[in-house]
Amino acid sequence: MDTAAYIPVFETDNAGVNRAYRLAVEDLAANIEPFKDGLLKEAAPCIIAGRGYDTPWTRDTAINIWNGAGLLYPEASRNTLLSVLTEDARGVRVGGQYWDAIIWVIGAWHYWLYTADAAFYPLFREATVNSLAYFEATEFDPERGLFRGPACYGDGVSAYPDRYVAGESFILTFREVFPEKCVRTGYGMPMFTLSTNCLYFEAYRIARRLTGDEAYAQRAAALKDAINRAFWDPSRGTCRYLIDTEGRCDAQEALGLSFALAFGIADDSQAASIIENVRRTPNGIPCLYPGFSRYDALGYGRHSGTVWPHAQAFWADAAAGRRPECLDFELTALTRNALREGFFSEIYHPDTGLPYGGIQESGGVANDRWRSQPRQTWSATGYLRMLLFGLTGLRFDEDSFSVSPRRIDSVREIHIRGLRWRDMTVDIDVSDFGGAADVRHEAGRHVHICL
């Protein structure tokens, strides 16, 4: 298995949080298995999506590494990034489900920030440039200035309005059943979603840092403007979820709002308004709110109304700097649910907090055969995100990192031992949540931060 494992001790004055952290680390470790695909030519330790799956998936790969797996398991993280790349006559680019595949760039960027892996850098740069060019040619709509495609993680039809239902669970079935409603360029899905376009914005910014090409900064600025024109709704003080040729969907998309805050697409006034108007359930922010009425008689849609911990985590982290109680609420809910089961589930019921697979179409009807998979990796790494980035306030850059802890009611002390960043070892003690620290890279240094 992965010999380059760096598991820090993470303890607080909250015993439940401490136990849940250990569960998260155990779930992550349990999902590292030999795997071979893409540019990974020999089987090697990779981070698979969870106990109910046998592959990494591109978006899961990026999210898990971004969430902190790249710090704890750098070797497996690198292998997994390679395993979801593809190569053809046009060069190396990101593979997997096409619409949000660009998230790989963000996961790879954070892997590089965590490791400074010089051997990986040229391939990272090539895959980023080629992938942006490919998706610009196949999925960019110059009239709207946006990228077409479903929402980040939304591969199930339960994430979409009734007009996208085509009888089966996979959203891309729509093209097979209704080809006349699709455009001729690329895959042709006629929708534009908030989360996916936010990912392209961040990928452009990363491409600018990788290449020095100001054209990417210009494209990022244009895309930011297009996102705000299309998705910002001043009457409701928040962002809508989806637009297409038939109208729009004004649902609250947890990942889309999180990315808009985290990437600075929403300005300070917009961000404050989004946080003020967000709706949450007793067990956390739902992936979409409200759910779609076609599921009301049976429960909640698998991808609408339910609580997915990876989305919880992004929201908790993105909102924590402005409203720490958002982090406290999501952290407390996920801690409670993980401790009850003894592991991190894929999806939770918004009212009961129990593992819940939700409702989704298959065989032409909506049914409840769907399962919440146990020991889901991005649920576990989402918890790591809440602790390392949301609570402790860790942020990494090309040659430094910073610590800016957030004060919440449920945690008053933080103690971290043996956190590895590149070739440095970091210990952190926090009792003053008003403090902050910046540390520059120094090879082989052991740093002890006291706040």
Any overview of this molecule?
Helices cover 39% and strands 18% of the residues. The protein has 13 helices and 22 strands. It has helices at 15-30, 58-72, 74-83, 103-115, 121-139, 173-177, 194-211, 214-231, 254-262, 268-277, 309-320, 324-341, 377-391, and strands at 9-12, 32-37, 40-47, 85-88, 91-94, 140-141, 146-147, 191-193, 232-233, 238-239, 242-244, 247-249, 252-253, 288-289, 360-362, 365-367, 395-396, 400-403, 414-421, 424-430, 437-440, 446-450. Strands 1-19-20-22 form a 4-stranded mixed beta sheet. A hairpin with a 3-residue loop joins strand 17 (395-396) and strand 18. Helix 4 crosses helix 7. The longest helix has 19 residues, at 121-139.
